[in-house]
Amino acid sequence: MLTEVTATRYVTPLREGGSLPGIVEADDLGTYVMKFTGAGQGRKTLVAEVICGELGRRLGLRVPELVTIQLDPVIGLAEPDQEVQELLKASAGLNLGMDFLPGSLGFDPLAYEVGAAEAGKVVWFDALINNVDRSWRNPNMLVWHGEPWLIDHGATMIWHHNWPGAQASAAKPYNASDHVLAPFGPDIASAAAELAPLVTEELLTEVAAEVPDEWLAGEPGFETTDQLRRAYVEPLLARAGSIHERILMDEPTRTRPSQAPGWLTDHLTSWPHPTKKDRDAPAAAGPNSKDGGR
Question: What ranges does the record give for the region Disordered, renumbered to this chain (predicted)?
Fold first, then answer.
């Protein structure tokens, strides 16, 4: 099971998402982004965070460490926001924490470069879990110590909101046209060859076991939490072997204005981005090349 800690101080809410996560300090001296069982999206969001986040970590992707956090709502009594107070009261007990990455920046595809190999792994992984929330509109990626990190996997495995249709939903293709890493020429075939064999029944059973029983109990149509865990394993296992053949990638629907500072974007080109090899080519050609004197 995930490491369990106890919240000791509620620091501040994060108002970038609809679930109103908050930064908390815990008794292990760690600082976490806390996601609440009492939030509007419900506990299935936390289940998806655990299964997909832990799966990503085991596949070698950068996902912040996850923990479960015991919350006593009394720690938020000094919080003046009534909405936050109500959320804390509704979330007494076990909640989810994601390791806080101090100094991290939101990923902007015009400000950071990602290689085709890494982009391919992220796109393939998002296709596997049917992540509808890693587009240029909302990248759900951070840059920390110069490397991209994947966060916020609550909007994944959409089939678990309608278990009778799970098999049909999991068989659908994945449209990556608006994926934030689509401009970097993701090498999906290589990613599938490397990662798909790792997604075994044993691995998926292992990550499903990380979900606390209390977030699974009482699901309609399932007599036990073990049955429900198995229901999470089966669609992902079936999807892993062939989803790379059903990833759609066309021109993005529209261009997103960069959030990077002007001094940086003035020196960047629009989609699709040139690779590092493309940018180095003029210099490598030397002063006698056709464009060398420009």
Answer: 248-294
